[in-house]
Every structure is written in structure tokens, then in C-alpha cells.
């Protein structure tokens, strides 16, 4: 059955649909010897689809992992600066996988890793409004005005953010801990939102994505999602 090339690549676990489109645009994908274009359709059972000259034929089992990313690790499979990457923690994983979205180098916490491009798309696409929850330590004692601004939405350079859920956890003499849930996935969004309302982030940890909670998974640990966990996430973003 014919499908769009980017969807075929996603189903094969090559990359998310968005990344697959980039591979096509970069001229790295061919169909029956001809350079593919975004939106082109092909039949994975009949057509010869190649990436960087390598024939793509093997359909690997779907892998769904959760990883507690430590701070100081790049959310990538390689890094030109030679910094630690998530690939360093995937040595026991037999199949090619990729991160679902990203966590900043200085941030830590829950990160999904998979080879299911459609699953990644459902988690990441803004239309799905998948909630992501963070525990954040900020400089200063955060006031009611700042919390209300975060709840209503904050104006950033790339536009107004969607309303966030925010609650105080605790405070010391000079710092505050809050829980923030957002429904978007802009670059460094939580950090930028808090900077905008006057409370720079000291530490940021993601503790949940949708129904999936990090629980007692230790920094650097990785585990397979259960069938029930996968099912619940897919139900949240059909």
C-alpha cells in the first residue's frame, strides 16, 4: 500500500516524521533510484527506498523507553563538542532509536526514546497538547503576580505561550520550588517563561509526560515502558 515517504521512514524507526522530512529535503532519500521529495508516495513492499544509499528493508520491532536524563548530557545520539550524549546510555539497546523531543543540556528528568515515528509525532505535535510536568527551582521567592502570569500565558519572542498549570511546592530564604505543566514544546520554554516573569531557573527536572511519571527511576537509568503505559500515552494523543 502506498504511503508518504516520511511516514514510511517514521514507521521503520528511522526518525520522527519531522526529521524524516529533513532527510528527504537534504537529498538523502531515494525511491527506485530517484531523489525523493516531501509528499511523494511509495509502497514499502514494492519500491526500493534507500537512505544514504542503503536499502531500507528491515521492519524492526517497536521500542518504547523511558530515560532519566542527568544534567550535563546532550539529548542527541552524537555531539560535535564531544560531550556525553544519550547514546552513551543505550549500549544495551539493539535497535536504532531516537529521542522524542529534547531536554536542555543543563536540564534533567524524563525523556522518551523510541523507534516509532508515529508515536513520537503524537507526543510532540502541538495539536496534541500533550502535558509535560516539571519541578523547577528558581532564584527568589516567586510571587502571586508571577504565578498568575504563567497561568495566563507569557509573551515570548516567538509569541504568547498557552496557559500553564503552576503550583508552589516550597521556598527557602532565597529560592522557590514550583511545579509547572505546559502543553507545548518550544525550545527552552519553561526557562524562558520564568526568565520573562523575573525568576531565573536554577534547576529544572521533568517528572511526567502525559500519564507517564518518572517515579523512582534514578538518573542515568533506562527502562522499557509497559504495554499499559504505551496504551495510555497513545490514548492521550490519538
TrEMBL record:
<dbReference type="InterPro" id="IPR000748">
    <property type="entry name" value="PsdUridine_synth_RsuA/RluB/E/F"/>
</dbReference>
<keyword id="KW-0413">Isomerase</keyword>
<dbReference type="InterPro" id="IPR020103">
    <property type="entry name" value="PsdUridine_synth_cat_dom_sf"/>
</dbReference>
<dbReference type="GO" id="GO:0001522">
    <property type="term" value="P:pseudouridine synthesis"/>
</dbReference>
<keyword id="KW-0694">RNA-binding</keyword>
<dbReference type="InterPro" id="IPR018496">
    <property type="entry name" value="PsdUridine_synth_RsuA/RluB_CS"/>
</dbReference>
<dbReference type="InterPro" id="IPR002942">
    <property type="entry name" value="S4_RNA-bd"/>
</dbReference>
<dbReference type="Pfam" id="PF01479">
    <property type="entry name" value="S4"/>
</dbReference>
<dbReference type="InterPro" id="IPR042092">
    <property type="entry name" value="PsdUridine_s_RsuA/RluB/E/F_cat"/>
</dbReference>
<dbReference type="InterPro" id="IPR020094">
    <property type="entry name" value="TruA/RsuA/RluB/E/F_N"/>
</dbReference>
<dbReference type="Pfam" id="PF00849">
    <property type="entry name" value="PseudoU_synth_2"/>
</dbReference>
<protein>
    <submittedName>
        <fullName>rRNA pseudouridine synthase</fullName>
    </submittedName>
</protein>
<dbReference type="GO" id="GO:0005829">
    <property type="term" value="C:cytosol"/>
</dbReference>
<dbReference type="InterPro" id="IPR006145">
    <property type="entry name" value="PsdUridine_synth_RsuA/RluA"/>
</dbReference>
<dbReference type="GO" id="GO:0003723">
    <property type="term" value="F:RNA binding"/>
</dbReference>
<feature type="domain" description="RNA-binding S4">
    <location>
        <begin position="3"/>
        <end position="64"/>
    </location>
</feature>
<dbReference type="GO" id="GO:0006364">
    <property type="term" value="P:rRNA processing"/>
</dbReference>
<comment type="similarity">
    <text>Belongs to the pseudouridine synthase RsuA family.</text>
</comment>
<dbReference type="InterPro" id="IPR036986">
    <property type="entry name" value="S4_RNA-bd_sf"/>
</dbReference>
<dbReference type="GO" id="GO:0009982">
    <property type="term" value="F:pseudouridine synthase activity"/>
</dbReference>
<dbReference type="InterPro" id="IPR050343">
    <property type="entry name" value="RsuA_PseudoU_synthase"/>
</dbReference>
